[in-house]
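Re: export button greyed out
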Amino acid sequence: MTAPHAFEMRQRARRTRQSEAIRSLVRETTLTVSDLIWPIFVREGVNIEEPVASMPGVMRYSVDRAVAAAEGAAALGIPAVCIFPYTEAALKTETCEEAWNPENISNRAIRAIKQAVPQMAVMTDIALDPYNSNGHDGIVRDGRIVNDETVVALVKMAMAQAEAGADILGPSDMMDGRIGAMRDALESAGYQDVTIMSYSAKYASAFYGPFRDAVGASGALKGDKKTYQMDPANTDEAMRMIARDLEEGADMVMVKPGMSYLDVCHRVKSEFGVPTFAYQVSGEYAMIEAAALNGWIDGEKIMMESLLAFKRAGCDGILTYYAPRAARLLSA
Ligand code: PBG
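Workaround output, generated via the alternate export path:
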């Protein structure tokens, strides 16, 4: 019998694409619920779920509602939540002492969630920006962000979070020496098991805009964060930051933002082989949601495709505001 074509083809890539069954057999990357960390915003009050205008579908929760949200996430199989505080302007100072107040909103949320859902890992944010009247991640003196004094403050903040029961500390401040200083303090205080996921390669990015609204820091921020966050042009520098943070005692590392930095994620995983995470940040989420709400893209499909891309790039997990929505689809 003559073939309908003029030549014999031995290699037909389309053979393994012909049905979902065969596609699933040859699939190289999978996204699962256990890859997801859900960032949540907490605020004062009782029984409050307040929408964040620039992040459709994202809420600021009072502690009681945050507990309910964490319970819901645990029921979906999400292994971890990450707490970010919305701090009232009256509590913000130049010295940022609210950051290490054991009773601040973030530490109260950690305790409440650990009590209600002990199996859930609770991650924190360590940076001074939610508590700083200047809106910066570090203490500002004479117009400069002072490194070493900030590290002393960050260590106090880390210790208060460990004391409150946090499982994963997330230093997002980009000061030099903070991982080592925190690790030493944790070891000497008997918190040997508290893990650190360092925001090692955090870039000075415009993709954080909606987050700064969510935590109420946009109004306060004067200038930009380029003297401590990384230049988006650099990846060798990111490798040096990862090596340094691992050396100083980080257990897991993060690249942030996510989607525009997948080359960095890939390099981190292939060069270090350590637990590697990416943060699909507020601006990435807002862009997808805005286009979806306009009917220009299929938001749900893009959500799943974007999350899978992080896994393909080598990430072990993703911090994403989509965690509950993706978890629901994955378990459907
Ligand atoms: C605080 C912090 C930021 C984010 C996480 N921790 C903002 C910033 O560095 O300005 C951004 C998260 C997001 O955009 O979703 N240091």
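Residues 125, 127, 129, 137, 172, 208, 211-212, 225, 281-282 surround PBG (CB under 6 Å). The button fix ships in the next patch.
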